[in-house]
Every structure is written in C-alpha cells, then in structure tokens.
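Course assignment 3, question 2. Fill in each field.
Student: A.L.
Task: Predict the tertiary structure for the chain below.
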Amino acid sequence: MAYNPNKELKKYYGISEVAEQFNVAESLLRYWEKEFPNIKPRKSGRGVRQYTKEDIEEVRIVYNLLKVRGMKIAAAKAVLNKNHKAASDTSEIIGRLQSLRTELQAISRELGELVG
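Answer field:
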C-alpha cells in the first residue's frame, strides 16, 4: 500500500487540542457550541468531546468572524445564517494567507541569516 500524505492520521481531536490550535480557552469552545449550532462535536459515553475535521472547520469559521474580524456574536450568527458558504470561503482564504505569511517570514529570516 502506497503512502498517502493527505490521509488524516486522526479521526477525532480532543477539546484541548482544538483550543490550543486556535489559542482559545476550552470554556470558550464550549460556549461557542451553545451559540453556534454548526459546532457540534461528538460526545463519547463519558461526555468527552471529539472534534472531527468538519467540526474544526466550523470552529475556524466562527473564530474568523469573532476573533479576526471582531464581530459580535449576533452579527456572526447573522452572517452565518445569511451566507454560510461565503463565511467558510473567507475563513479558508484567511487561513491560507496566514500560512503563506508565516512561510514568507521564515524565508525572510533565512535570507537575513545568509546575507547578514
């Protein structure tokens, strides 16, 4: 069987992993679950939250609206109700741009070390 680098290694992620990824408190993620019905991680028999990639994408959309764009919860809900697809696309683009920025900063540091 050939190696597939695009294959996900994990099916579920814990709340602490997701909170760390977005640099937010676990309690904030639990609050967002109550406010945004699209964030609905599976809960194990013991009540442990298990986030899928789709759940994490929903968190990313909410994070973008609230933390990056500075919207209030009511405004973010209105945006999601009006056009979830556009909010999702915008979140994906911002994520790609942030990743590209980080990569360019690393290249700039490496070039600075070579020249300096």
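Instructor remarks: The longest helix spans residues 73-115. The chain is about 65% helix and 5% strand.
Grade: pending
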